[in-house]
Design brief:
- By secondary structure, the chain is mostly beta strands.
- Among the domains are: about 15-300, 7 Propeller (Methylamine Dehydrogenase, Chain H), CATH 2.130.10.10; about 610-669, no CATH class.
């Protein structure tokens, strides 16, 4: 993955560019010391002067109104908030006319930002004050009074708190006065820039000491960058929270969420004072000290599934290759590619206007459908359907391009990350953004029937702790659909969604990442120094059975915050903390056994266990045979793992209990 950087030969600004902000995925506003507000169109590479501000107008920051419907006032979407060096902040419309100017600070107003919900704005100034204002520019409260300048202040993702700088300290202050503020020393030098991501709830800071650091909301350091030669002048998270970028003097660096560097470029731009991401997370713009506006596009993103590899090689070009047959092709699209998903024998490409669904057996004849809006943040794949997450909402389609459902539960789609959303073959699960203990589970139609949002059957599950990650099982009937979840204590629970009284059963603790196999009910989790596979999660009701059917393998040097990418044929693909990939053979035979059982091939399952002669494999067969009422197989398997009390019980059932009562007894157990 790398950045493809472009700038015009001659700068359009005279003097430094101070701030940039995206209007949509193709339009960018920029402003600088030449008092001009410029609008850039990336499709036709045009640049136009929107307005020229007065001579005494020196901007220090700019933020466009968030793209949400507030009271149905759609014209609010193009309102620009600009802070200036004379202590004022200005509300400017998209034509460049100043609607309102408010004198907010003594000395320069260093930053101004709309709240994520659009209900208000905050400003911070050279006088050390941080203030919250209404959307119309009326003062609500002065949150902070300090004797040192506040160089940066940002809203929390839910608009309930602010993060601001005080020298080399970071401070989180809640708008609710009863909540205790969090303060920590973050750097040795003055902190110049911060960013707070809505999806991963992480904070990044950049300082004069040349370091950028990632923090959680408790002030715990997640990672620290290498020392740069010059101060860090800008930082920015991508909307999805999987990437961030830092800007310095003649330097721009793209990193993953753990701080590992994907690429480093040294454009001749001077200091990069501001960096802004497009809402689809594929492009960024930078305000440069030499008068240029830098534009960058992410290319060389790689996706793999089984024997297929896919790479975005250009803005409109995707290369796909079958590694086994060495067949390859370049797929050209009429518009810019913004999202790619590969899996379940399909390649799904989303451009600005359309979505293309390619079968991997014939990738040159895609199914296409038009998108509601050209801002797609995520595509999820399952066996029978795909989920497209746009700013307008969530839509579930069949692989024939037919709309199946549009689930709604009051969430803002742009704040949904991959950890908060999971798609199964017939089910969609999502964490409630307002109450993260609550999980919504939607039934999806299995036929080609269009359903409105009111037709969907919704199951609401409430956990005792805040949930951080969910994952739906990908196989089995809908009545047996399982949901695995991680809470903020890093405890792993599994629940059968369609039970009359869903029960959360704990599988393990200190789990960092989870993923289900796409072909079986094998659940794999990752600890700090090991990988764990739960071969029969349903056996969790019997603690001794759960222990017998769990496989663990020690792994060293995983680094900080490793993640599981996928599980295939018992081989786990892990992304280490430093970005490198690791393949670990963890549960090859158990997954093969699970495939035999799902195909009702009990003799093949028995033959596999007799050949391998592994106690864990026999335990898996015993539990699975018991659950599927295969008493003869279960009896042999339990005997070989020395569960003699279970063998006696099975013999009792087979010899003395009528068939109907036997089935009832098995179901009860």
């Amino acid at each position: 993955m790398k950045l493809k950087i472009s700038t015009l030969k001659e700068p359009k600004h005279v003097g430094p560019v101070v701030c940039v902000s995206w209007n949509n995925t193709e339009d960018v506003f920029s402003s600088g010391d030449d008092h001009k507000l410029l609008k850039w169109n990336l499709v036709n590479s045009e640049c136009m002067t929107v307005t020229t501000f007065p001579e005494e107008f020196y901007p220090t920051g700019m933020h466009l109104f968030p793209k949400i419907n507030v009271g149905g006032n759609k014209h609010q979407h193009d309102v620009i908030l600009i802070s200036s060096a004379d202590g004022k902040f200005h509300i400017v419309n998209h034509n460049g006319r100043v609607e309102k100017s408010v004198n907010g600070h003594q000395g320069a107003c260093l930053t101004a930002q709309w709240s994520p919900d659009g209900a208000g704005l905050l400003t911070a100034g050279e006088d050390g004050f941080v203030k919250v204002w209404s959307r119309n520019g009326l003062l609500r409260s002065t949150l902070v009074q300090s004797d040192v300048p506040c160089y940066c202040a940002v809203w929390s993702p839910d608009s309930s708190a602010i993060l601001y700088t005080k020298g080399n300290f970071l401070i989180i202050k809640h708008l609710n006065s009863s909540s205790k503020m969090t303060k920590w020393k973050a750097h040795e030098g003055l902190i110049l820039c911060t960013a707070w991501n809505a999806n991963n709830n992480m904070i990044i800071s950049g300082s004069e000491d040349g370091f950028s650091k990632i923090w959680d909301t408790f002030g715990q350091q997640i990672s620290v960058s290498v020392k740069h030669d010059q101060p860090i002048t800008s930082v920015s998270w991508s909307p999805a929270g999987d990437l961030f970028v830092i800007g310095s003097f003649n330097l721009i660096r793209l990193c993953n969420a753990n701080g590992w560097s994907h690429c480093l470029d040294r454009p001749n731009t001077g200091s990069i004072y501001s960096v802004a991401w497009s809402s689809d997370g594929t492009q960024l713009a930078g305000a440069c000290a030499n008068g240029h506006v830098l534009f960058a596009h992410i290319i060389d993103r790689e996706y793999t599934w089984k024997n297929f590899a896919c790479t975005q090689t250009g803005r409109k070009v995707v290369a796909i290759r079958d590694i086994i047959t060495d067949q390859s092709d370049n797929l050209d699209y009429p518009d810019r590619v913004i999202q790619i998903a590969l899996g379940f024998n399909h390649l799904v490409i989303a451009t600005v206007k359309q979505c293309f669904i390619h079968k991997l057996t014939s990738w040159n004849t895609p199914v296409t459908f038009d998108l509601k809006e050209g801002t797609i943040s995520m595509i999820l794949l399952a066996e029978r359907c795909i989920c497209v997450v746009e700013r307008a909402g969530l839509s579930v389609y069949s692989y024939m391009g037919r709309l199946l459902a549009s689930p709604r539960w009051g969430a803002r789609p742009e704040t949904l990350g991959r950890a908060a959303l999971s798609l199964g073959p017939d089910t969609l699960a999502a964490i409630d953004q307002a109450d993260r203990k609550l999980i919504h589970v939607f039934d999806l139609p299995t036929g080609l029937i269009v359903r409105s949002s009111t037709d969907n059957t919704v199951t609401k599950l409430t956990h005792k702790m805040t949930v951080s990650h969910i994952a739906l099982s990908q196989t089995g009937p809908i009545a047996e659909r399982q949901l695995a979840l991680l809470d903020y204590n890093r405890d792993l629970y599994v629940v059968t969604v369609k039970d009359n009284k869903p029960k959360f059963i704990k599988l393990g603790s200190q789990i960092l990442s989870i993923v289900w196999s796409a072909e079986t009910e094998l659940l794999v989790g990752l600890r700090a120094n090991s990988a764990v596979a739960w071969c029969c999660p349903r056996a969790a009701t019997q603690p001794d059975w759960l222990a017998l059917t769990t496989v663990s393998k020690e792994i060293s040097d995983l680094g900080r915050n490793p993640t599981i990418m996928s599980v295939e044929n018992g081989v786990v693909r892990i992304c280490r903390g430093n970005g490198s990939l690791l393949h670990v053979s963890l549960a090859s035979f158990p997954e093969k056994l699970l495939k035999h059982v799902s195909a009702n091939m009990w003799q093949a399952a028995l033959q596999l266990c007799r050949t391998v002669e592994d106690e864990t494999l026999w335990a898996c067969l015993a539990v699975l045979a018991w659950q599927h009422h295969q008493l003869a197989v279960a009896e042999e398997a339990f005997a070989l793992i020395h569960q003699y009390h279970q063998v006696c019980y099975i013999q009792h059932l087979r010899n003395s209990v009528p068939e109907r009562l036997r089935q009832d007894s098995l179901k009860a157990n």
